[in-house]
Design brief:
about 210 residues, mainly alpha, binds fe (ii) ion
């Protein structure tokens, strides 16, 4: 059993949050598709790609916050290590989407600080209810993200291979995060919880498309 987070841990978490939202993210892996040529996109296609990548970037901000919140309150050290590993990959997703938004001449969501705060609180709450549920929440989040990214692959312009390569790789990573959570003993969440999660991510994705 792990004691509640110390003041030091809270300060580190707060500092991480500020850096996630306001500082550029770093990636160890190369950005997927970075060797592919930039496609000739119409203005409309470029705007659509930038909006979709903004949604994905906000999703990654939320993923960072959920993972950091969960890692802060998770009790089992093994689950904690799995969460931190996944969080590192989410940082790469954050860097890739951020870079792609810039290439497309788009901008990040103005509401990212609010999404970070809300997701962090949700993650910390999930961490408190115990590791099986914590991991179950993670597995379900990742499953829903995979479905969401699949939807984006249908909406992104076929010509925009650079954006598509990023989304494809993210989708593979998220599916692996779900599998790893299940392997570490994730419980299956009750249907109403799954539905509530789908609803809140719908609010996030639809808002981030515009704001
Ligand atoms: Fe991700
Ligand atoms: Fe993930």
């Amino acid at each position: 059993m792990r004691p509640l987070p110390s003041l030091d841990e809270l300060i580190v978490a707060f500092d991480r949050g500020l850096r996630t939202v306001f500082a550029p993210a770093q990636s160890l892996r190369a950005t997927p598709g970075e060797n592919l040529p930039e496609a000739e996109l119409t203005d409309e296609q470029r705007r659509l790609s930038a909006s979709l990548m903004r949604v994905n970037h906000t999703g990654e901000i939320c993923a960072q916050a959920l993972y950091q919140g969960q890692a802060l309150t998770a009790r089992d050290t093994r689950a904690k290590a799995a969460l931190e590993q996944a969080a590192r990959e989410e940082t790469e997703h954050l860097a890739w989407t951020e870079r792609r938004i810039e290439e497309l001449g788009g901008r990040k969501s103005l509401l990212n600080p609010a999404w970070y705060a809300g997701s962090f609180a949700l993650g910390a709450a999930a961490g408190l209810v115990g590791d099986r549920w914590n991991l179950g929440f993670l597995a379900e989040t990742e499953r829903q993200v995979v479905a969401h990214l699949e939807g984006h692959l249908q909406r992104l312009p076929v010509e925009d291979s650079r954006s598509r390569a990023i989304v494809e790789t993210m989708k593979e990573d998220e599916a692996r995060h779900a599998t790893s959570a299940i392997k570490h003993g994730a419980a299956e969440l009750p249907s109403p919880a799954k539905a509530a999660m789908r609803l809140s991510s719908k609010v996030m994705t639809e808002t981030a498309f515009w704001i």
